[in-house]
């Protein structure tokens, strides 16, 4: 029941057993939370107790080798890595990268415009979205980018992220819940794949860091990036090569497939809703006009486009079960005893499709978010957890530190797609909205759509804006 689409079984049980219940898998006790108030009580109010991670055999021990911020237990190493990650993901840092995110979004739309040839060539936008997210992360992490979807790093990096989705999951890997002595000796194929993935990450991303280190030693001036910061601080922060390779990998794994998945879900969903597209495009024409692309500053004046993004995120969280937390001490929650070592899973599927909060929750309806002008990063801090927009970024002390970057990337990509194209389904090629069944992530299965420029001047504006954005990026 939990090896395929575990969120659906957890939702069924939440309806039967309530918003807090436990299950046991092998040697591991799990508590499943399906209510915003309980999630806040445990993850936020009692964050000192509920911020640990389980040392999963495949994900934490094999792929991340006990390093990196995502899978590290709640300890001093995590604090150090989270602090370094935050330097690169804070509001101040994001303000600095805006020219990069701006350029990459425009570059993606321009590539889609060129390759779809005025709507005559059917397009699968997934690799374009993947490359856009990838370029944002490689620029922030290593100060490098790819120049087209055919660049070998695009396939290599997307394959690594996909393999991560296929081999690591909060509750689908039986090997994670076996006694250690069995894990060590049993020839699990997942163990072999986990080791291969670890090596792939170290070779690829650790290799980029080595390259940067050589250039720095040779006195070559390089753009600021996470890798450069880590190399400069390695003595002071006591970082070894593996620490740096895995922290960079956490950025590449955490920041690529996730934001790309939201752009992909948007592209898969929107062709079925021409009236929603029209309404968003009327708003864009009114506020932005047809002579320039929407920017970050425009978001507050484009409430309908903003609402479309929140609704895509509610309907298609890329990680329905997030990254589970672990209780580092025994805890009594009212009459319920949660023992130390319990894995606590945020069941966002039940929360996002909760009928008591959302009218007809299965329906894609951006209007439900029209009154909510918050950014998701701000919504996560609302005092009343029942008003939070959605739970895609997790909660508490381990909440996604990449939220600010992710929101900017997603806004620029989606608002510009709406600005540039009428997106429609191709007759005879219906879009399958099935979620890809990885062990953790959920992107759409492959699909093609038609992208027709909305008006004659689209190409010219894209050309001009790309040139402008490139010169700002290069100066910055
Ligand atoms: C749509 C985009 C994204 C989604 C849905 C997402 C989702 C998540 C979730 C659910 C968690 C676990 C939170 C928890 O434990 O409660 C997380 C953690 C994390 N995310 Fe994101 N993320 C996104 C984008 C990014 C980006 C752009 C980065 C940039 C590097 C990033 C880096 C990380 C890191 C490093 C962690 C580990 C935090 C820790 O354990 O302390 N994420 N993310």
Please tell me about this protein's structure.
The protein is built from 18 helices and eight strands. It is an alpha+beta fold and 476 residues long. It has a four-stranded mixed sheet. Strands 4-5 form a two-stranded antiparallel ribbon. It is globular. The model has no long low-confidence stretch (mean pLDDT 92). Bound molecules: protoporphyrin IX containing FE. Protoporphyrin IX containing FE binds next to α4, α11, α12 and α17.
Strand share of the residues? 5-15%
* Strand tally: 8
What is the arithmetic mean of pLDDT? 92
Molecular shape: globular
Ligands bound, unique: protoporphyrin IX containing FE
SSE string, helices as H and strands as E: HEEHHHHHHHHHHHHHEEEEHHHEEH
Q: Can you list the strand order of the major beta sheet?
A: 1-2-6-3
Summing up helix and strand content along with how strands pair, one would put the structural category as: alpha+beta
CATH-assigned homologous superfamily: Cytochrome P450
CATH architecture: Orthogonal Bundle
Helical content, roughly? 40-55%
């Amino acid at each position: 029941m939990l090896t395929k689409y575990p969120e659906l079984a957890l939702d069924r049980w939440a309806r039967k057993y309530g918003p807090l219940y436990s299950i046991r898998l092998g040697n591991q006790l799990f508590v499943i939370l399906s209510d915003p108030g309980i999630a806040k009580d445990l993850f936020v109010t009692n964050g000192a107790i509920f911020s640990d991670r389980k040392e999963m055999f495949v994900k934490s021990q094999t792929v991340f080798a006990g390093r990196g911020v995502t899978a590290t237990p709640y300890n001093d190493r995590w604090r150090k890595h989270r602090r370094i990650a935050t330097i690169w993901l804070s509001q101040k840092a994001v303000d600095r990268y805006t020219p990069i995110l701006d350029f990459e979004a425009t570059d993606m739309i321009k590539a889609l415009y060129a390759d779809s040839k005025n709507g005559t060539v059917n397009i699968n936008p997934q690799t374009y979205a993947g490359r856009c997210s990838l370029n944002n992360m490689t620029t922030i992490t290593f100060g490098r980018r790819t120049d087209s979807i055919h660049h070998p790093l695009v396939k290599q990096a997307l394959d690594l992220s996909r393999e991560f989705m296929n081999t690591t999951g909060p509750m689908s890997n039986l090997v994670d819940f076996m006694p250690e002595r069995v894990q060590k000796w049993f020839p699990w194929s997942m163990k072999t794949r986990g080791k291969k993935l670890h090596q792939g990450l170290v070779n690829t991303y650790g290799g980029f860091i080595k390259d940067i280190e050589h250039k720095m030693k040779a006195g070559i001036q390089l753009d600021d990036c996470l890798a450069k910061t880590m190399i400069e601080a390695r003595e002071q922060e006591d970082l070894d090569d593996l620490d740096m390779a895995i922290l960079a990998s956490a950025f590449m794994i955490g920041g690529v497939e996730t934001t790309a998945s939201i752009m992909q879900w948007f592209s898969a969903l929107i062709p079925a809703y021409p009236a929603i597209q029209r309404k968003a495009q009327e708003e864009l024409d009114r506020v932005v006009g047809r002579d320039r692309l929407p920017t970050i500053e425009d978001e507050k004046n484009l409430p309908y486009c903003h609402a479309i993004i929140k609704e895509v995120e509610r309907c298609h969280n890329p990680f329905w079960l997030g990254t589970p937390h672990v209780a580092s001490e025994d805890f009594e929650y009212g009459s319920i005893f949660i023992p130390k070592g319990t894995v606590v899973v945020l069941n966002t599927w039940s929360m996002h499709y909760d009928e008591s909060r959302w009218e007809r929750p299965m329906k894609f309806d951006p209007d439900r978010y029209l009154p909510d002008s918050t950014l998701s990063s701000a919504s996560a801090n609302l005092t009343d957890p029942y008003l939070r927009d959605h739970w895609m970024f997790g909660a508490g002390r381990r909440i996604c530190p990449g939220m600010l970057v992710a929101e900017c990337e997603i806004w620029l990509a989606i608002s510009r797609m709406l600005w540039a194209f009428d997106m429609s389904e191709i007759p005879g090629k219906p879009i399958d909205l099935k979620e890809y069944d990885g062990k953790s992530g959920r992107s759409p299965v492959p699909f093609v759509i038609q992208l027709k420029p909305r008006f004659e001047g689209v190409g010219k504006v894209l050309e001009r804006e790309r040139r402008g954005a490139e010169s700002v990026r290069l100066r910055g």
